[in-house]
Specification:
Layout lengths: L19 E3 L15 E2 L5 E2 L3 E3 L8 H9 L3 E4 L5 H14 L4 E2 L12 H11 L3 E5 L5 E6 H10 L5 H4 L13 H11 L3 E5 L5 E6 H9 L14 E4 L4 H10 L3 E5 L6 H13 L3 E7 L2 H7 L5 E4 L9 H5 L5 H14 L4 E4 L5 H9 L4 E4 L1 H4 L8 E4 L2 E7 L4 H8 L20 E5 L4 H19 L4 H7 L2 E3 L2 H7 L18
Parallel strand pairs: 4-5, 4-16, 5-11, 11-12, 12-13, 13-14, 14-15, 15-16
Antiparallel strand pairs: 1-20, 2-3, 6-10, 7-8, 9-10, 17-18, 18-19
The chain binds xanthosine-5'-monophosphate.
């Protein structure tokens, strides 16, 4: 008897987003009540389980700040030198800081005249400044209100004549509530923070406190600073320790094939050297997860699903994303290691399907690349606005330094690059806030259809059905001409 297939062709099937749908279930959960709180790594929680990709056209400090303020987290790309990366981490960590640190506080010198102080405050864009002597001792505080009467009659008056010398100060361990109450009680806008010897340590402002209140959902560390992720190469221990010291919460070992055993060795070495959580990726199989669970604080999944990726066509290797996520999650969940689904997410429905397959959080590139907060400027082509978006394995990105993500040496000649990504443009989308709102809102709707109020409950309850290509077509807008653009749907051409 003949076997109809050779053994090489008796192959398992692997599925992706469009192949499946969530089976609707009995529910009393209204979408608005669904709680998206989840983890991106063992110790880092977010209120919205969404990350912006570590790509040079997606995440630098501006994006990371906006992502964290709205409850998610940005992962700063690694196509920069270490100093610049440290600067970016500092910008994120300082963005919503309660206490502005001493070296960033604008201070006045007692020798200055009121005119000089006025000019300095205008130049620095502040409405007031502590007056300190050369030792850093706080002598008083001056504001534009104190200065105004002097400007008319004696602009060469010394600042010490105009300042308030009975200064209300705060101790270093003050929290936001106490600072607010103190300023409210004394009707003041800013409070110098001092040590036991009355030396200036920092400044708390009412504006800063109100700004923090605006972002109730923000993902913050234990000091109240915004969360920040950063990508590092598997062999970049220096970059990893610098990022760790700069205060990054999660390091993402960034490699296109993290089941390469040298990459795993490198990742282990980095994990030993740092305090921050270390997420390792990308992988796409059960066996890879088994090799990572004993040390990784999170596992990132995605071999070739990305919108700008050509890994699958160039190398012939890959794993459709729903199968990849579920295989990794089967192993990782046994060890309580969070899983991140990275790449290929076009709609909010894809994001919540990834969670149903076992992901704790999702990472997106193209979805965010068109927003104001992404690096790069808006360009107009044929009357439509776009922003640049390129794969980190594209020739352009590799030339600026990221070839080792694809485990390649930098060639001498540009023509020798073997890219695994393309350089592209993506429609301009406006603010990140509205994009995230649509994404998170759609995910909550998915939880409503399944009847789950929390992410862990959703992962437990969610079931898939398999969709035929006819079913897939039925799911999209069909047999109509769309007249008004929806904020969360643009059909593929
Ligand atoms: P999306 O679909 O959200 O995917 O745009 C973003 C993810 O794609 C990965 N990435 C690449 N994969 N070649 C690849 O094969 C590339 O040049 C490339 N650049 C980024 C990465 O995991 C990212 O988060």
């Amino acid at each position: 008897e003949h076997e109809p297939y050779s053994s090489k062709l008796r192959v398992p099937e692997a599925l992706t987003f469009d192949d499946v749908l969530l089976r609707p279930k009995e529910s009393r959960v209204e979408p608005d009540e669904a709680d998206l709180t989840s983890r991106v790594s063992k110790t880092v929680e977010v209120s919205v389980p969404i990350l912006s990709a570590a790509m040079d056209t997606v995440t630098e400090a501006d994006m990371a700040i906006a992502m964290a303020r709205h409850g998610g987290m940005g992962v700063i790309h690694r196509n920069t030198n270490i100093d610049r990366m440290v600067e970016e981490i500092h910008s994120v960590k300082r963005a919503d800081e309660l206490i502005i640190p001493h070296d960033s506080v604008v201070t006045a010198d007692p020798e200055m005249t009121v005119r000089e102080v006025d000019e300095m405050m205008v130049r620095e864009g502040v409405g007031g400044a502590p007056v300190t002597n050369t030792n850093g001792e706080v002598l008083g505080i001056i504001s534009s209100t104190d200065i105004r009467p002097h400007l008319e009659v004696g602009e060469n008056d010394s600042v010490t004549e105009a300042m308030t010398d009975e200064v209300i100060t705060a101790p270093q361990d003050i929290d936001a509530r106490e600072a607010f109450d103190l300023m409210y009680e004394h009707r003041i806008e800013r409070v110098p923070v001092v040590d036991d010897e009355n030396l200036l340590v920092g400044l708390v402002t009412m504006q800063g406190i109100l700004q923090r209140r605006e972002y109730k959902e923000a993902a913050r560390d234990s000091d109240g600073k915004l969360r920040c992720g950063v990508a590092v190469g598997p062999f970049e221990t220096d970059r990893a320790t610098a990022a760790d010291e700069a205060g990054a919460d999660v390091l993402f070992i960034d490699c296109a094939h993290a089941h390469n055993l040298n990459v795993i060795d490198g990742a282990r070495e980095i994990k030993e050297a740092v305090e921050a959580d270390v997420v390792v990726g990308n992988v796409g199989t059960r066996e890879a997860a088994e090799d990572l669970v004993d040390f990784a604080d999170g596992i990132k999944v995605g071999i070739g699903p990305g919108s700008i990726c050509t890994t699958r066509v160039v190398s012939g290797a890959g794993m459709p994303q729903i199968t990849a996520v579920s295989q990794v999650a089967d192993v990782a969940s046994e060890h309580d290691v969070p899983v991140i689904a990275d790449g290929g997410i076009r709609y909010s429905g894809d994001a919540i399907k990834a969670v149903a397959a076992g992901a704790d959080a999702v990472m997106l590139g193209s979805y965010f690349a068109g927003t104001d907060e992404a690096p790069g400027r808006v360009v107009t082509m044929n009357g439509k606005k776009y922003k640049q978006y390129r794969g980190m394995g594209s020739v352009g990105a590799m030339k600026s330094g990221d070839a080792d993500r694809y485990l390649k040496e930098d060639p001498e000649d540009d023509e020798e690059y073997v890219p695994e990504g393309v350089e592209a443009a993506t429609p301009y989308k406006g603010t990140l806030k509205s994009e995230l709102h649509q994404l998170a809102g759609g995910m909550q709707s998915g939880m409503g259809y399944v009847g789950a109020e929390t992410i862990p409950e959703f992962k437990e309850r969610a079931e898939f059905v398999r969709v035929s290509s006819a079913g897939q077509a039925e799911g999209h807008a069909h047999d109509v001409v769309i007249t008004d653009e929806a904020p969360n749907y643009s059909p593929d051409e």
